């Protein structure tokens, strides 16, 4: 499978985008847990990422609340079901791991949901940052709890003015 990648700046640090011919395969932050080795990202080539970068810029400008990008997610059937549920969490809202487990038909699977959530290869676009612990606590995030806190604050309207960044967003590195 032909893979390509590019790195672009964001208000949350550099983002590495990885794609196949089928769609976006990865969106990785610096120091992200479960980040694959760079040699698996394919050749550097910013051309396949024009639309993804445009939509990310609109998201960071507060103009886009749901991404419309072809995705090429690989994972176990359970992980894929969890990631599909993440896509249903509305912008600015959160769900708990337990709520997602119940929606999957197994209310005792919150830990498994958390593990699948942590393996999400396309953060931000597949909004794993919108999942919180019971009682509203911020638990685990592959990109770090500070980034999770900032993303949730941004989506709730209480975050920093990331819109100032949007004009410069998308410059490949």
UniProtKB/TrEMBL annotation:
<keyword id="KW-0227">DNA damage</keyword>
<dbReference type="InterPro" id="IPR036631">
    <property type="entry name" value="MGMT_N_sf"/>
</dbReference>
<dbReference type="InterPro" id="IPR008332">
    <property type="entry name" value="MethylG_MeTrfase_N"/>
</dbReference>
<protein>
    <recommendedName>
        <fullName>Methylated-DNA--protein-cysteine methyltransferase</fullName>
        <ecNumber>2.1.1.63</ecNumber>
    </recommendedName>
</protein>
<dbReference type="InterPro" id="IPR023546">
    <property type="entry name" value="MGMT"/>
</dbReference>
<feature type="domain" description="Methylated-DNA-[protein]-cysteine S-methyltransferase DNA binding">
    <location>
        <begin position="77"/>
        <end position="156"/>
    </location>
</feature>
<keyword id="KW-0808">Transferase</keyword>
<dbReference type="Pfam" id="PF01035">
    <property type="entry name" value="DNA_binding_1"/>
</dbReference>
<dbReference type="InterPro" id="IPR036388">
    <property type="entry name" value="WH-like_DNA-bd_sf"/>
</dbReference>
<keyword id="KW-0489">Methyltransferase</keyword>
<dbReference type="InterPro" id="IPR036217">
    <property type="entry name" value="MethylDNA_cys_MeTrfase_DNAb"/>
</dbReference>
<comment type="function">
    <text>Involved in the cellular defense against the biological effects of O6-methylguanine (O6-MeG) and O4-methylthymine (O4-MeT) in DNA. Repairs the methylated nucleobase in DNA by stoichiometrically transferring the methyl group to a cysteine residue in the enzyme. This is a suicide reaction: the enzyme is irreversibly inactivated.</text>
</comment>
<feature type="domain" description="Methylguanine DNA methyltransferase ribonuclease-like">
    <location>
        <begin position="5"/>
        <end position="73"/>
    </location>
</feature>
<dbReference type="InterPro" id="IPR014048">
    <property type="entry name" value="MethylDNA_cys_MeTrfase_DNA-bd"/>
</dbReference>
<keyword id="KW-0963">Cytoplasm</keyword>
<dbReference type="InterPro" id="IPR001497">
    <property type="entry name" value="MethylDNA_cys_MeTrfase_AS"/>
</dbReference>
<feature type="active site" description="Nucleophile; methyl group acceptor">
    <location>
        <position position="128"/>
    </location>
</feature>
<dbReference type="Pfam" id="PF02870">
    <property type="entry name" value="Methyltransf_1N"/>
</dbReference>
<comment type="similarity">
    <text>Belongs to the MGMT family.</text>
</comment>
<keyword id="KW-0234">DNA repair</keyword>
